Amino acid sequence: MAGKFIRKTKRHLNLYFVLVIVVGVFFFAGLRYGKIIKNSPFWYFGRINFALLGNQSVSIFSLEGNEARLLEFSPQEKIDLPRGFGEYELRKIYQLGELEKRGGQLSLETFQNSLNFPVVGYFYQDDLKFGNYTLLSDFKKIIGRSIRKKIKTNLNLTDLLILYFRTKRISPLLFKKFEYRSEMDDFFKDEQIRREALAVEILNGTQHQGLAQKAAELWENLGGRIIRVADHSEQLSQSLLIARGESNKSYSYEIMKHFFKPDCRDLNGEENRADMTLILGDDYWKNMTEKW
Fold first, then answer.
1. What structural domains and CATH numbers belong to the chain?
2. pTM for this one?
3. For residue range 102-147, what is the model confidence (pLDDT) as tens digits?
4. CA-to-CA distance for 114 and 78, rounded, in angstroms?
5. What keywords sit in the KW lines (predicted)?
6. Segment 152-185, tens digit of pLDDT
């Protein structure tokens, strides 16, 4: 009788031990996955812009809250590419970059550095005409096919899942189409950046002319407020973002870090009209011009 009781007690202890391990594994996995989710730009970006690329169709899909927009390009539109590639049609950029196994990178850099459009991701398939995707449900199919690796993308599984659930919030009544070069002044504006309205100055810390103006145009496309564009008194090898007051806790600060990849410094007590100062270094220039 005592032996039976002991065996039963051991079984209960073993079951309890296994249960504790399982709960612990799920708990720590949840913590880890939660950190992964929060590191995804799609978790904290208000407006998300990504490129839909094919041989016969090029567009940018943008979403914010329950509203979505589609910016359509002529695939034959010629663009002066970064990294010294010269002028090419938009539809050929991905394949051109793939000669160096960097089709997606060249596509994103073209939108960001040549057109000053704040695009954070891409979807590509050779023979897919994204112009046929007119319903929001079809964009979810694009995401689903990307999860199954049927469509090429730079987004990981976490990004795709976040994007999928964000598209479920979109109202079909708030889905609009635009054409490149017409009625697109506010296309990329991020409402949270607009609301914060932080005063930003952008300085060129290199010998290359026009760099600060290009960066300022990208920030203004996002809805940011530029109060000064000028040359910096010193040359920098690495871009630097200086935050004053509480601006280092702002949404705008995080977005600027994402697009410009600067070193960061907090500076208080200095008299300056700017809440944030971005000083562009040679690293920013090299990302636009350095050949692979």
1. 44-179 (3.30.420.590), 191-289 (3.30.70.2390)
2. 0.83
3. 999 999 999 999 999 999 999 999 876 655 555 566 777 888 899 9
4. 11
5. Membrane, Transmembrane, Transmembrane helix
6. 999 999 999 999 888 888 888 888 888 898 777 7
